[in-house]
Write a structure and sequence with these properties.
- By secondary structure, the chain is mainly beta.
- It has one helix at residues 69-73; strands at 10-13, 16-17, 24-35, 46-60, 80-86, 95-109, 117-124, 129-132.
- The chain has 1 helix and 8 strands.
- Strands 1, 2, 3, 4, 5, 6, 7 and 8 form an 8-stranded antiparallel beta sheet that branches.
- The protein is globular and about 65 Å long.
- It starts with 9 loop residues before the first strand and ends with a strand.
């Protein structure tokens, strides 16, 4: 087992490489849970349901016209596009997750004593495809 540093993570949205603008990202998967407990049981019984999840990314604001996060993400709000995330970076044999995501929000935060930051929240639409590059 080898530990992996996050600095090599690759992330793109709608085929736009945002890696140089992102300093944290997350891809979470979950499943609906249904209570199927019947009379006579002493504890809950559950069954799994539909899969779902969300993805987030954020970073320090960069005003690069045309390729910065503001220029790329804001026009995508409300649309479903492809997210690609490579948690170990790009290279043969490394994992890659690809998913259709609904771009739910883009937020800019302007603290008085720090750098302007941004964040984006996305909802998974359909299954996540995990492959080896």
């Amino acid at each position: 087992m080898a530990f992996v540093h996050g600095k090599d993570t690759f992330i793109s949205l709608n085929a736009a490489n945002l890696s140089t603008f992102v300093n944290t990202s997350e891809l979470s998967r979950e499943a609906d849970e249904h209570d199927v407990t019947t009379y006579g049981k002493g504890a809950h019984v559950v069954a799994g349901g539909l899969l779902g999840g969300k993805a987030t990314m954020s970073g320090i604001y960069e005003n690069t016209a045309g390729t910065g996060p503001r220029a790329v993400i804001r026009p995508l709000i409300g649309t479903v596009v492809t997210l690609i995330r490579r948690p170990e970076g790009t290279g043969a044999g490394k994992p890659q997750d690809s998913a259709s995501v609904h771009v739910k929000s883009y937020v800019e935060t302007n603290p008085v004593a720090d750098m302007v930051a941004w964040s984006c929240e996305m909802t998974l639409s359909d299954v996540v495809t995990s492959t080896v590059q």
